[in-house]
Amino acid sequence: MYPLIYAHRGASGHAPENTMAAFRLAVQEGAGGIELDVQLSADKQVVVIHDETLDRTTDGTGAVGSRTWEELCRLDASFGQEVYRGEGIPLLSQVLELLAPTQLELNIELKNGIVPYDGMEEAVVRLVRQYGMEKRIVLSSFNHYSIARLAGMAPDMETAVLYSEGLYRPWEYAAFVGARSLHPHYLAVTPEIVMNARMAGVKVRPWTVNSDDDYRRMAAAGVDAVITNYPGRFKAMQKA
Ligand code: G3P
Ligand code: MG
Does residue 111 line the site of ligand 1, with CB under 6 A? Predict the structure, then answer.
């Protein structure tokens, strides 16, 4: 059923963002895909966390990239919610293991716009291949140099241009950087952009669509998927 529902940082409207609990909840709620964010640890492990620093979403402090996985795996991301006790920062490999036996798509957002993690693209591509997820993966980034690198390095994997505002003729820009899809902020989406993208064979998946009205507007525009914190709510709307 279209549009597909991607769970943004997992079902992050209910469970702590980018945790295994949020990803399991998204699967339970019938999401068609999951969006998550990755950074690199000091020992080059691909870890699932949105910010470059630990402070907002864990009980740790400082830069993610200054800590080894051994240090990161001890941090707590439950924020004192008893039901989420034990939730922490996952490895990307743990999420791939969860999703490999399912039909869900996985959007890995490389957070390499602020910290240009050396070797991040290679590490992500290697993991996706290890779990045989090439056909269900979408690699995205606000760093479009990274998108161009990924498109060259793994042409069998879908790449998506992330952007926030009025990119001019984005369906042409996607082709220019070698991407097969567009991930715009939902306020940057118009029916004309979606129509032109469709004619160019470029998919459109806006973020972060959380209200019923915005969902209806995106669905009417004909987007391929919406990225939302509340996958269960929109699945219920689709069934109704
Ligand atoms: O990938 C869509 C969306 O997640 C981009 O923004 O800051 O939520 O990662 P952000
Ligand atoms: Mg993201």
Answer: no
